Automatic annotation (TrEMBL):
Keyword field: Acyltransferase, Transferase
Residues annotated as domain N-acetyltransferase: 5-150
Gene3D superfamilies: 3.40.630.30
Residue ranges that the Swiss-Prot or TrEMBL entry lists as coiled coil: none
Molecular function terms from GO: acyltransferase activity, transferring groups other than amino-acyl groups
Lineage, highest ranks first: Bacteria, Pseudomonadati, Bacteroidota, Saprospiria, Saprospirales
UniProt name for this protein: GNAT family N-acetyltransferase
UniProt cross-references to SUPFAM superfamilies, sorted A to Z: Acyl-CoA N-acyltransferases (Nat) (SSF55729)
Pfam families: Acetyltransf_1
Domain of life: Bacteria
Keyword Transferase attributed: yes
Amino acid sequence: MILLYRTDPSNPDFTELVKHLDAELAVRDGDDHAFYAQFNTMGFLKYSLVAYEDGIPLGCGALKEISPDTVEIKRVYTTSQSRGKGIATKVMAELEKWAAELSFKKCILETGQNQPEAIGLYHKLGYHRIPNYGQYSDVFTSLCFAKEIG
């Protein structure tokens, strides 16, 4: 059974999962990784989530406030050996639920064109493409998505 634990970015399991995420993204993004990494610092995150099975951390995600009604979903990751079990879907659903409880009305997110699994997941969960926002506005390798939650 998957347990979803709401926490903050200082949680050691969250930070360890993010290290694995960053290592995977360094391979996928290649020379572009340093550019993207600047937008994935933990400093602006207040809310994070870790998914556990039998006490083992298998996945994570986080929320970053963008405006009073919009939150950005960040740092979504599932360990390679745990993929295909629906963990990312559960993490996303819990992040959306948490965001709604915090009175946000919309979730936005960015992913890279080299992450087809993530793109497929976001489409499956009802996210739709939007124009690239903020720091991703002029980044042609970024794909931005949104979903109304409230």
